[in-house]
Prior knowledge:
By secondary structure, the protein is α/β, with parallel strands linked by helices. The chain folds into two domains: 1-35, no CATH class; 36-134. Helices cover 42% and strands 19% of the residues. The protein has six helices and five strands. It has helices at residues 2-10, 18-27, 37-47, 85-95, 112-120, 128-134, and strands spanning 52-57, 62-67, 73-78, 100-103, 124-127. The protein has a five-stranded mixed β-sheet with strand order 1-2-3-4-5, sandwiched between helices. Strand 3, helix 4 (85-95) and strand 4 form a beta-alpha-beta unit. Helix 4 (85-95) packs parallel to helix 5. It is globular, with a radius of gyration of 15 Å. The two termini are 28 Å apart.
Amino acid sequence: MGDAIVLLREKRIGWGGLGDAIRALRDCEVLGDYEERELTFVIRGLRQHRAITDFTLLDDHRILVIRRGLPDLVIYIGSEYQPTAHSVRSAIDRFGQFDIFAATNPNSDPTVEATEVAELGEIRVLKWRETLAALHK
Length: 137
């Protein structure tokens, strides 16, 4: 799926859910100019990060991050307001294993239960700023 997203972006073809379609119709003169906001925000942060040499979109929620002199990581992008144990379990069920559940909503406050469930699977639940800091380690 990641390859499909990359191809759509290269060809300037908008993609996303119903909400994305409504935003594209409202905000863009050319629908192909629309980019999914959350992923665009995350990609910008990863491109500007000094510890990252490259990254690959695996699908619409996971990114393989290649770091300079450090092991690769798979980051799950979660934009929920308050990630819960259910959010983490659902992400694992749907997308498989990853290293970090990145809560990208700036007001995000993951629950204690979300962190505990994640730790059982050797996953860290981090806010976006914490995720960026963790990429150095």
